[in-house]
Amino acid sequence: MVGSGPNGLAAAVALAGEGVQVTVLEAADELGGGTRSAEAIVPGLLHDQCSATHPMAVGSSFLRGLGLGRYGLEWLLPEIDCAHPLDDGTAGVLHRSVAETAAGLGADGRRWSRLFAGPAADYDVLAEDILGPLLRIPRHPLRLARFGIPALLPASVLAKAFSGEPAKALFAGVAAHALHPLDRPLSSSIGLGILTAGHRHGWAVAAGGSRSITGALAALLRDLGGEVQTGVRVRSSADLPSSDVTIFDLAPAAVADILGDRLPNRIARAYRRFRYGPAAFKVDFAVEGGVPWTAEPARRAGTVHVGGSFAEIAATEREIHRGRMPERPFVLVGQQYLADPQRSVGDVHPVWSYAHVPNGYSGDATGAIIAQVERFAPGFRERIVGTAVRTPAGFAEYNPNYVGGNILTGAKNSPQLIFGPRTTLNPYDVGLPGHYICSAATPPGPGAHGMCGANAAARALKHLRGRARSR
């Protein structure tokens, strides 16, 4: 197993649980990929270094089936999942309850309920279809159709179902997690998936930081007889030990570089042509007294989306996709300490944020992020005790899967969202017997849910069983 992000460790655990001897090789000195956490700015103040809030992971059937609570993984929920403040002091407010969310959206409440109540109630069944390869015979075709038809639409079209700005903006902020223009086909899909999962299981954080997710997976792997080696960089096939199966939790181009001439030409070309979307510019803050949001629900929300109206967010996402930095970027703010107070030090709290910026952006977005938060929380600037910055280049150094700072491991355009790294019905196969890819470049995509790894492991197990039968 090459790479120890949540997908790599999920694949390793799935194989080890079936009696396969597994070794995980991790280039960094610390395992975890996008789920690492560390103290920063102020001693004792705990910040998630990338992935922070986990509506897809807390409901992951694979993770839930592992009993990771035995290894210290505890999910915690904020009072309010997400708030989207507007310039007039109001906010779109997302609760775990569909009914409670709808009640706060006025005339749009009925439309919100119509869109989410059924899929949220059916989410655990629906997830069997949406958290795997999309091009296959669905297990639950009627439920998938009910979810999938709206998901095919551009977010800008689906937003027209709402008449008020709070509902439109609330939907826009979640849809924008895809780092993709909101007027493109399928741009509703990731937002609908996150919202549906959240309405079923909540926007949870891991107690003690996101590192607790991979820490629990690694502990289980060791109990199953697996091994994790850090500080081991794989640059070519020569660096790989002899094995029956190799799975890569890596970006497609990295897999092509490692396998070199062993990879079929058409697959190597596809992996090297794989496209990457816009980037993240991250600023962690130490904030005395918390963020003084004007909209009171935002003070109780684990996540706050800062970007104004639907139209403003749609415009900024178009700009970054074209390689231009907007004056007012879309900013995601995490207040994980509200659910997990142990992350704070006294009245100084860790506030996590990142702005959407063009891929490879080399400027400094710190001031723009502060200004955007200040826009909806006057006095925020005066409460800042310290900052820690991670640029797009810093993200790529932190995790080479994040090419140009694209933390989603690939652009989520229609072809890559449907097929993954190449056009095939088996997106985890790399075209070389016994070799697979399981990074967030494969379906179902980004998140700490581990499903890319579990799906790749299922392909690997099928290969191993086939070899055993042929002997």
UniProtKB/TrEMBL annotation:
Q: Mind telling me which Gene3D superfamilies this protein's record contains?
A: FAD/NAD(P)-binding domain (3.50.50.60)
Q: Which InterPro entries match?
A: FAD/NAD-bd_sf
Kindly name one Pfam family recorded for this protein: NAD_binding_8
Q: Which PANTHER family match?
A: DEHYDROGENASE-RELATED, PHYTOENE DEHYDROGENASE
Q: What is this protein called?
A: Phytoene dehydrogenase-related protein
